[in-house]
Amino acid sequence: MNIQLIQHNLKMIDEYVQTGRGVEAGRLALLLAKMMLEKPDGGQMDAAAKRGLYGAYGGAAVSLKECFDMLLQDYSPTDDMEQLKEKIARINDRISQCIVDIEEIEQNNSELFAAEAELRKKQDELKEKRDKLQELKDLKEKGLSDLKKEIDELDETLNTLNEECSKALNEKEKWAEAFTINRQLIAELPESVADKTADELIAAAKEYAARVQQTGSEGEEWLIKVIDAVEGIRERMKNSAQA
Amino acid sequence: MAYAGLDLGTTYSACYVYDDAAKKKFFLKFDNHALDFFPTQIAYHKDKENVVYIGAAARRYRYSKKYDAYHTFKLSLGTDAQDAKGRSRTPLQVTHDFVDMLLNKLEEVYNIHRQNLVLVQSVPDIWKNEEKNRVAIDNLSDMYADLGMQGRIGFESEPVAAAVYYFNEICNREYRGHIVVVDYGGGTLDLTLCRAEENGVISVLGSCGNGGDDSKGCAGSAFDRAVTQRLAEKYELDETLYAPGMPGFNSLQENFESSKIASTENTRAGLKEYYESGGLIDSVVFTIPMPPPVCDEYEVSASDIANAFEEVNRQALVGAVEEMKKKCAELGVDTNGMEDFRVLMVGGFSNLHCVEHCVRELFGSTEGIDDPRFDDRMNREARSVAVAQGACLVAAGITPVNYINQLEAGFYAFSPQKNKSIAVPLLEKGKPVNDYANPNFAHYLFRLAFDTAPASLELFFDDGRGRVKVHMDEHFRSLCPDCGEEGGVYQIGFSIDRHRIPQLHIRETGSGQVNVVSLYKTMAKLPAVMIQAEDEEK
Questions:
Q1: Does residue B39 lie within any of the structural domains?
Q2: A100, B8, B190, B441: most buried by Cβ count inside 10 Å?
Q3: 3-class DSSP state for residue B462?
């Protein structure tokens, strides 16, 4: 009898028991008990060895008891075959029911998943719209201030234009007056002037002005203006022809 | 340099190679689908000289009339190595060609030339204890010299190679303690006691076993034959075809062997059930599908296996294990130790459940019990490759092996004071074998005196099984240097060579000339007489 082997296996059984491996502990305990019963060769042992063997048997018995206690928790008599069959049938029914339940749960789950997916989609859309709205709001805020600024700028421009317009109107009036006089003067121009060129007209006008010079300084002033105007026209014509 | 371990088994062989240059380790394989081991068979085409196959290819032609096929030749490498027994080639020639083809294969396929190879062949430890096989290593040594391997060949005991493998590859060199290796193969049963020392050396302390022989045997081949015989009787097969040695019988045995290997796990389960039920549950463990023209399928039951084992193997196994336990007790080895004692099961036949069941029982263990002495890591695969890999580790010098001398040898000298012969031991048991690398010469001097008395020498030899007296007369004279000259004075010495073969040295004191012969070879040539210890006085 190998006491060391027995002790080693008792240690293993203890370890199995401590770690909740009851079946393995039970299997090993059974094998160990079998081995000890098959090989109880203590005849040639001295008293100390026999005491050791006795101690080992005692230890084994304690370990075996622990194993069996542990296994007892899950133990149920299985000698009644009918009862066992019923039990198996019940378990089978339960398994079938469980399969049906599982299928139903799976179906529900799939619907829930679909609904969840839809919800997520809508949430995304909502978020998108919110973002858009915010964008528009931002744009609006920004647009109003810009518009106001633009209006102010336009007001300013309008004022400037009004000023310029009044100036231009004044100028226009002055020019209208000048043109009226001019038209009058042109109308009053002798017939011979009508077929003449601008140079000729200027020359004639100068000549006429020289003649009129003698009649008064006011008339002379107007004539000079007419000549300048005609020259201006000529310059502009020349420039536009060049362009 | 490359190192190889060759496990030349009786039925299967394996060659493991470590190529130092390429930093590769591998099993020699004949093709990509081959297993790590191959049949120890060779087939020569009878008409075409250059058509020779070995391994699985040779097995195909085992019964072909066109081929001269050989198997189990490992069992005849001792005194009958040169005996062709009516066939065209001797066992040694066949072994020579088998190994030569393996070496050629290494050159052709793996580019490892024999000039760059250190090879260790594993040999049964039991050979040294068998009169018939003591000279086998001498014969193999000569054979390897002829193959151009002189100086690069070593021989390691198979169980020791397995212990080296276990120590290195399984325990990562961390185990310290004793190891009993039970090497049970196709042809031999070898048990060896080793010790993994603190310094990482494996000491070999002793061995025992049973070699069997080709005709009878106690190992795997004999078991296969016994089961085949049972099946032939059970199925009432035609005796003219299915008697032992007949083609039908051989074919059935071969198919049984391959089915047995393929169904190891199934057989294990069936036998376990058989033993646990006390023989009440006797299931079919596998079937033997016979090829055409038989096309029949024979069922092998657990009882066929168990009964053949009981008949052929159990007694030898129990005897060897008990002898080993006795040896352990003599050396003070605690075989009950959980931390410092291991039992290694190696060899193909150890995979048979009956073998492990029996060995466990003898060491007070039971299958299923957590017993660290039987290391689970030595599984079926490890058992098959352990010897070849271990031999390779020895070849590469990774684990040193220290043999403790197990034999006593010396000679008898006449003491004028006592007026009688006294024993002069020159090799003593228990000393490291390395201590005898140089010869240990006795102080006694011999003088050849032709006129007065015929010169003779009486040697003694004890390998643990009782003292054997070997008488040398004419042969002794022929070994003496300058034996023609009368008055020559000689000294006798003994050494143990690198292959652990004891050598007899005869030195002429005047010229210093020495003749050295293998003690095993000498004993094989001379009559040896077993003598009782009380008949003599040291």
A1: yes
A2: B190
A3: strand
Closest-CA distance, A82 to chain B, in angstroms, reads 27
For residue B350, the one-letter residue type is S
Chain A, chain B: beta-carbon pairs less than 8 Å apart = 36
| Domain, as residue range, for A231 | 189-243
Query: Given an 8 Å threshold on Cβ–Cβ distance, is B364 in contact with A1?
Result: yes
**Residue B510 lies inside a defined structural domain of this protein:** yes
Q: Is A135 within the bounds of a domain?
A: no
Give pLDDT tens digits for B248-295. Answer: 888 888 889 888 888 888 999 999 888 878 888 899 999 998 776 667
**DSSP-assigned letters across all residues of B275-311:** HHTTT----EEEEEEPPTTT--EEEEEHHHHHHHIII
What are the chain A neighbours of B368 within 8 Å (beta carbons)?
27-28, 31
CB distance A27–B368 less than 8 Å?
Answer: yes
Question: Chain A residues contacting B, CB < 8 Å?
Answer: 1-5, 8-9, 12, 27-28, 31-32, 34-35, 38-39
Please check whether residue B18 lies inside any domain of the structure. yes
Average pLDDT per block of 10 residues along chain B, 538 residues long: 93 92 87 82 92 90 89 89 91 96 92 93 86 88 94 93 95 94 88 93 87 66 90 86 82 87 89 85 89 79 93 91 92 92 92 91 88 91 90 92 89 80 88 91 76 69 82 78 72 90 88 87 73 49
The number of domains in chain A is: 2
- Does residue A164 belong to any structural domain of this protein? no
Provide the 10 A C-beta neighbour count for residue B342.
25
Q: Which of A75, A97, A128 is the last residue of a domain?
A: A75
- Distance, in angstroms, between A79 CA and closest chain B CA? 21
Contact check, Cβ <8 Å, B369/A9: yes
**Per-residue pLDDT tens over the stretch B147-165:** 999 989 999 999 999 999 9
Contact in structure between B12 and B38 (CB atoms under 8 Å): yes
| CB within 8 Å of A225: residues ≥ 6 apart | A178
* Residue B12 domain boundaries: 2-160
Cβ contacts of residue A141 below 8 Å, gap of 6+? none
Verify whether the Cβ–Cβ distance B372 to A9 is below 8 Å.
Answer: no
How far off is chain B from A96, nearest CA to CA, in Å? 35
A27: distance to nearest CA of chain B, Å?
A: 9
Asked if B370's CB is within 8 angstroms of A12's CB, the reply is yes
In a domain, residue A37? The reply is: yes
Enclosing H/E stretch for B27: strand B24-27
A28: nearest CB among B337, B364, B370:
B370
Say which CATH number the domain at B525 has: 2.60.34
Q: Which of A41, A75, A109 is the last residue of a domain?
A: A75
